[in-house]
Structure formats: C-alpha cells, structure tokens
Structure to design on (206 residues):
C-alpha cells in the first residue's frame, strides 16, 4: 500500500464523505439493518452515528489501516459495540460463511479490485434470507456524463486510491449471486455529475 493511500487518502476521503449531502443519505440505507450486522469497507467510521438504535453490535472489515486514526473518537461517541475482523489482500475473502443477517456496503464497490468476487464473498457471508444494504456511486445513464466518467477514470483512480467513476453497479449486482430486491438511482443534488450518480437499495440471499 502506498504512502498516499495509507496516510493522505483517508484524510481526504473523510473530508469529502463527512459532508451533509452524504450524511443525509446514510440513515435511509441503514434503517433496515438487523440481527448480526457486518459493514464491509468501514472507512473512517462515518456510518456509525447513523445506525438504528436496535443495532447494538457491529462487525467491521476495513483493509486500509490508515482509516484507523479516525476510529477512537467515533467509537467513543457511539453506543454500538464494534468488533473488527482482519482483512486479507482480497478484502472480503476473510469473511466467515453464513454468519450475518445484514451486510452494509456504502461507497465501497467502486474501489474493490474484483467487484464480482467481492459480491460473491458477501453472498457467502450472509445467511439465507440475509440482506445487503448498499449505496454506491457509479456509471451514469447519460452518455455525455458517462463519456467524462471514462475519460477521467484513470486520474480518479490515482487520486481516489483505486476508486472507479464508471462502474455499472446495477449490472454488477444483477451478475452476482444476490437477488436485487430494490434498486433506486439518482443524482446527489449540487454535486458534480461524474461522481454524483448513485445506486441505492437492497439485495437478498435467496
């Protein structure tokens, strides 16, 4: 892992993702979390303040050790008990099988190296009937916006520690072993469209 990815990018990501526009979206994604909950791509812990009260315990997976510097103050401000499981170079490959009722994935699929393998690991980690709750940015249906997403993707990958602007999240979910139960798409208002097109919803392990 590069010095930039470990020491600079976590600060930059926390600055961008802690804004009001993203904060307003988090409760809607997390409201259906129940049972044994896993959050993959925990990042700097910005979701922690938005979990519903009935979630008393949370398992987290975060492959970037640079994110940890933000955790102590967010753990201290939350009533949720947090347990970390170790990440491997393949990300979710460390997950136990059929161990969780809910998996939460927010703005993470854009940056995992093999998104389909990652979704397969989430499917394996869920119990039958378990749900993946997600929100991700990705490929816009507008051809003009999509062209710019493709043009700028290389630069964005370098600045965003592997973050892709042009992944078709809906197509990835439909190609995974999970069944898409709900999928909403929209732009975040007053945000550049190349990074503002969102996919949010629920996918289920049948």
């Amino acid at each position: 892992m590069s010095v930039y990815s470990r020491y600079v990018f976590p600060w930059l990501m926390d600055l961008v993702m802690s804004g009001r526009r993203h904060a307003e979206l988090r409760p809607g994604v997390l409201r259906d979390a129940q049972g044994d909950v896993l959050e993959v791509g925990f990042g700097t812990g910005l979701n922690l303040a938005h979990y519903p009260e009935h979630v008393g315990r949370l398992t987290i997976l975060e492959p970037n050790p640079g994110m940890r510097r933000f955790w102590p103050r967010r753990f201290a401000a939350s009533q949720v008990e947090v347990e970390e499981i170790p990440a491997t170079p393949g990300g979710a490959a460390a997950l136990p099988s059929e161990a969780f009722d809910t998996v939460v994935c927010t703005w993470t699929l854009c940056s995992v190296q093999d998104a389909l393998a990652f979704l397969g690991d989430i499917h394996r980690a869920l119990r039958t009937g378990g749900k993946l709750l997600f929100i991700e940015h990705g490929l816009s249906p507008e051809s003009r916006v999509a062209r710019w997403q493709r043009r700028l993707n290389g630069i964005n990958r370098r600045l965003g520690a592997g973050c892709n602007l042009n992944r078709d999240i809906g197509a990835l979910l439909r190609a995974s072993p999970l069944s898409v139960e709900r999928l909403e798409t929209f732009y975040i208002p007053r945000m550049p469209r190349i990074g503002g097109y969102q996919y949010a919803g629920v996918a289920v392990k049948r």
Summary: The chain has a mean pLDDT of 95. The beta strands are 37-40, 57-61, 81-84, 100-106, 126-137, 179-187, 197-204. Residues 143-159 form the longest helix (17 residues). DSSP finds seven helices and seven strands in the chain.
